[in-house]
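ok so I'm stuck.
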Amino acid sequence: MNPKELLFSTLRHEVTERAPWVPFAGVHAGKLTGVDATEILTDEDKLVDALMEVNRLYKPDGQPVVFDLQLEAEILGCDLVWSKDGPPSVANHPLADTMNIPCRCTLPTPDAGRMPMVLSAMRRMKAAVGETTALYGLLCGPFTLASHLRGNDIFMDMYDDDEYVKDLMSFCVDSGKKMIDMFVDAGMDVIAIVDPLVSQISVDHFEEFLSEPFAELFRYIREEKKVFSSFFVCGNATRNIEVMCKTAPDSISVDENVDIIAAKAVCDQYNVVIGGNIPLTSVMLHGTQQDNMKFVVDMLAKLDEYKNFIVAPGCDMPYAVPVENTIGAAQAVLNTADSAEMVKNYTSATFDIEVELPDYENLERPLVEVFTLDSATCAACTYMMGAANVVKGTFREKIDLVEYKFTEKENIARCMKMGVTNLPCIYINGQLKFSSIIPSTEELEEAVNEVL
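replied:
not stuck anymore, here's the structure
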């Protein structure tokens, strides 16, 4: 069978001869052709050229066309901050000072924002590689979109005004259906609902606010549009894996914060495919080609058979991932036995870096440390850092605040030394206070006051 058929067989829950490979090369695609992240997300020809290079070099069974969770937010009134080496981020929240629900007349349409460029690129990729490669259409999930519109207040709204949150989620579901319609019409084979902030809430809140919206979207994809679906999350979503499965996607995709083998055991109970989770920074960005090969080989060795499993990066690949690293990961999927022989005696020494930790017992003032993948590109990290910045604005010079981005080698070594296991998280005076749960302003202020 060809690569696309292999992926489809996996999504139909069949045993296959090898695991399928889906490199989530969003802005990273631009690196292959020498264009930056802004160009890749605004120029159709440059986007298509880069995607074709992804297809040629990385030999994917499936690949996304665009990985930008701000497409809908931009259409709905959010200003964006653009970057040369990452996707844009949301700069403002139209509903930050109002609890109105936007008019349905503002929902995405084929001629809104950057949609004409995106849809044309999808059609061109379908014509070029659609017979052999499954194409993914990625849309912003309803909870993350609600957060883009409302800002950090959405987390307090879940306690203070549950009906407003449900109404806003309903609007975001309608936005999702519009995007699904457009993507399927443009030839996308798999619709991925990407919602990073799912990892930042409790099971109870998921069941109260998210179960019905996601179940409705996956039902719509399956029954109305008759294509495959994926539920894509970032961060430590371990506690929510089962409730995610209950919304009935064909597959879910997780990042390095999740023990993917343990999560697969849960997914298998619901016959849901799981994908992931090559670490984005410690392996793909800062590791060697051998590190990437070994990670994939070791992960595949833990499987009893190639069923309900997709190998993929944990999320959108960083722009600067060395090309040879992704080729190494691809090689490990496509030729697992040969790759296993090549790295059987390999030991990584990539992060043998000395870092000095603060003297937490003798600080002049409380120190709030926020460990993120990168608050400029990771939605969950953006809102975690946003909560910390609000509290810094309240306490001002009474506290110190620092962000440690996991994209930097020294900070990876720092995380290892401190025992940081999940991102994003907040430490105060060297003690873990919030892990994969975005705190409300009141909760974070209380935590700071405890050490003042």
